[in-house]
Specification:
- The complex is a heterodimer of chains A (571) and B (87).
- Chain A has helices at residues 34-62, 65-78, 81-94, 98-114, 119-140, 163-167, 187-195, 231-252, 279-284, 308-321, 357-363, 365-379, 395-415, 432-436, 438-444, 452-460, 478-494, 511-517, 529-537, 541-553, 557-569; strands at 2-3, 5-8, 11-19, 154-158, 174-179, 199-201, 215-219, 224-227, 268-273, 290-294, 326-330, 384-389, 425-429, 447-450, 497-500, 521-524.
- Chain A is α/β, with parallel strands linked by helices and 571 residues long.
- Chain A folds into three domains: 25-140, Enzyme I, Chain A, domain 2 (Orthogonal Bundle); 147-250, Glucose Oxidase, domain 1, CATH 3.50.30.10; 253-569, TIM Barrel (Alpha-Beta Barrel).
- In chain A, helix 1 (34-62) packs antiparallel against helix 2 (65-78).
- Chain B has one domain (2-82): Histidine-containing Protein, Chain: A, CATH 3.30.1340.10.
- Helix content of chain B is 36%, strand content 26%.
- Chain B has three helices and four strands.
- Chain B has a four-stranded antiparallel sheet.
- In chain B, strand 2 and strand 3 (40-43) form a beta hairpin.
- The longest helix of chain B has 13 residues, at 70-82.
- Classes of the chains: A alpha/beta (571), B alpha+beta (87).
- At the A-B interface, helix 2, helix 3, helix 4 and helix 5 of A face helix 1 and helix 2 of B.
Chain lengths: 571, 87
């Protein structure tokens, strides 16, 4: 067994196909017909550009714009008059072949970039070497591996996946990917997840351990790879995959079914998403809307604030894709724990108790909050958008945000810009303070969504990332359970919608309790929707009251967990 | 020949993406489009040339256009930089 990094989940069983690009040998050859040689170079350049364009277009449609961007950058470099001019001059002046002229000029630029005191510029060195090799391959007629035509059941084994390789991958034929290099966030890992192909990366020296045609089993969750495994491993994994597929099939029956309990209570099963592209999964798993759209992605991994228009496009895209289904969008939840240089946030001693989320947004209305709220309002004309405010602790924060939204509505009225005049503005209930005054919030807010991850952390005063104390982190702790029940009761008394968007919303041990408490909406990762629907439709809220009463009568976390585990096992 | 000064306000300066925008606008004009920073002239039609100039946020550059459509070229370049080069 070989260990690597689990990069894309699932089990792949198939035949190894080793994909290796041959090393190019670049010789310095003298040419006499320099005009002819320049023509040869121009021809190769032209072909390289066309190939790159095709790759970029393919990647953009199959995977995403972001993944294609790197190739767009290559195109810009290939079109550069200075680069082309210098290669031409080198061919003419030194009377040398195109391959060697390209080698000289591109290597020179790559070295210049590599030596710059700027990480972004240093990345250009890699780009420069990539386009160099690509042009040289065309000139030398070196074969490029045709991944698109691999036989079905292939496990792709490579040192690393280059953009040109990844573009050809077809999930119908490639059932797994193993690479020697890379990490969870490398290009190959991102691509594997986007295509839902199980993958293990960073398997040390793997190319020397496997040959073409070997039988390979990889476990993309555990991060391990077996080459020519013995019968017991083979059977083990065949069973695992079988069970996985059977379960998947069983759950597919619940697509298109209403989420309604045995005693006729309908609840909403919606999804948490982090970027517009995630909507595809929501629709695939039959989500009834979006219960939490985190907007942080718009602000991360970039060098300047996203513009209002850019945000508007992203929100509109999601709202339109969901048709009339509800889309709850949470305004920016960011603080000193995130590195966002252009925002100029100071390091917070205690980021989770510090200057973050609504606190930061209300302090920076002009450059952060107003553009985001305006974008949300404008997008509300295109679907059923609701605005959710994170980390509120006192009613003043809600009122101030609400007043700001009203002010922006008037501004849009004056400009004659369309928006949903009845847009709902709710809060994320995730602090102990908000829970304790949930009755006050319920009179003013349009809806609640309970964020159990933070609610548990704040209620228990425990950082769940800290191994020494993470045993304290449990949503089944009586303190947390009372808090959750209280929030739901307060919302129900005022007749507002109350949902949950933390991990607990899809926990089979928690769902029966939440149904008994009267939760209206369950928001979870899209892949958990179908099994949750299966569970909910098998339960009756009336019968669950006794279960909830019993669970709430315990005094320790362990008793509650044991009891609920037993209850679920008995279903 | 026409020229004008402008300050770059992109947080990471002229890295690949804004440079690409700048150059693809510049090549639309017949006139030569250059800018001068720290006394060195740079060809605004070349991605490599612009990247090599290593322009940071807050740097002031002077666009210099020369040719039949120099006025339009200068106007377009200034507008593009002011708009934040797509960022």
């Amino acid at each position: 067994m070989y260990k690597g990094t689990n990069a894309s989940s699932g089990i792949g069983i198939g035949t190894a196909v080793i994909v290796e690009e041959t090393e190019l040998v670049i010789e310095k050859k003298t040419v006499t017909d320099t005009e002819g040689e320049v023509g040869r170079f121009k021809g190769a350049l032209d072909k390289t550009m066309k190939d790159t364009e095709a790759l970029a277009a393919d990647l953009a449609t199959r995977v995403g714009e972001k993944e294609a961007e790197i190739l767009q950058g290559h195109l810009m470099l290939l079109m550069d008059p200075m680069l082309i001019g210098e290669i031409e001059n080198t061919i003419k002046g030194e009377k040398i072949c195109s391959e060697f002229a390209i080698e000289m000029v591109c290597t020179m630029y790559a070295n210049v970039f590599a030596g710059m005191d700027d990480e972004l510029m240093q990345q250009r060195a890699t780009d420069m070497r990539d386009i160099k090799t690509r042009m040289q391959r065309v000139l030398l007629g070196a074969e490029t591996v045709d991944i698109a035509s691999l036989p079905a059941g292939s496990i792709l084994v490579a040192k690393d996946l280059t953009p040109s390789m990844t573009a050809g991958i077809n999930p119908k034929n490639v059932v797994g990917i193993v690479t020697e290099l890379g990490g969870k966030t490398s290009h190959s890992a991102i691509l594997a997840r986007a295509l839902e192909i199980p993958a293990v990366v960073a398997v040390n020296d793997f190319m020397n351990q496997v040959k073409d045609g070997d039988r390979v089993i990889l476990d993309g969750d555990a991060g391990c790879v077996f080459v020519n495994p013995d019968a017991s491993v083979e059977k083990d994994y065949a069973d695992k995959r079988e069970a996985f597929l059977a379960e998947k099939k069983e759950l597919e029956k619940y697509i298109g079914q209403p989420t309604i309990t045995k005693d006729g209570v309908t609840v909403e099963l919606v999804a948490n998403i982090g970027k517009p592209k995630d909507v595809e999964k929501v629709l695939q798993y039959d989500g009834e809307g979006v219960g939490l759209f985190r907007t942080e992605f718009l602000f991360m991994d970039r060098n300047s604030m996203p513009t209002e228009d850019e945000q508007f496009e992203a929100y509109k895209k999601v709202a339109e894709a969901l048709g009339g289904k509800p889309v709850i969008i949470r305004t920016l939840d960011i603080g000193g724990d995130k590195e966002i240089p252009y925002m100029g946030l100071e390091k917070d001693e205690n980021p989770f108790l510090g200057y973050r989320a609504i606190r930061l947004c209300l302090d920076r209305k002009e450059d952060i909050y107003k553009p985001q709220l305006r974008a949300l309002l404008r997008a509300s004309a295109f679907g059923n958008i609701k605005i959710m405010i994170p980390l509120v602790t006192c009613i003043d924060e809600y009122r101030e945000a609400k007043a700001l939204i009203d002010e922006l509505k008037l501004e849009l009225d004056r400009k004659g810009i369309a928006y949903n005049k009845d847009i709902q503005v709710g809060i994320m209930v995730e602090t102990a303070a908000a829970s304790l005054i949930a009755d006050i919030f319920a009179k003013e807010a349009d809806f609640f969504s309970i964020g159990t991850n933070d609610l548990t952390q704040y209620t228990m005063s425990v950082d769940r990332g800290n191994d020494k104390i993470s045993y304290l982190y449990s949503t089944f702790n009586p303190a947390v359970l009372r808090s959750i029940r209280r929030i739901i009761t307060c919302a129900r008394e005022e007749g507002i919608m109350v949902g949950m968007c933390g991990e607990a919303a899809s926990d089979p041990m928690m769902i029966p309790l939440l149904l008994a408490f009267g939760l209206n909406e369950f928001s979870m990762s899209a892949s958990a929707i179908l099994y949750s629907r299966k569970l909910i439709t098998s339960l009756s809220t009336q019968e669950l009251q006794a279960v909830a009463d019993k669970a709430m009568s315990f005094t320790t976390t362990k008793e509650v967990e044991d009891y609920m585990r037993g209850f679920v096992a008995g279903l | 020949m026409v020229s004008r000064n402008i300050t770059i306000k992109n947080a990471s300066g002229l890295h690949l993406r804004p440079t690409g925008m700048l150059c693809s606008e510049a090549i639309k004009y017949q006139s030569s489009v250059r800018f001068v920073s720290r006394g060195t002239p740079t060809n605004a039609k070349s991605v490599l040339s612009v990247l090599g100039a290593c322009i940071k946020c807050g740097d002031e550059i002077e666009f210099v256009c020369e040719g039949p459509d120099e006025e339009q070229a200068l106007e377009a370049m200034i507008r593009l930089v002011e708009s934040g080069l797509g960022e």
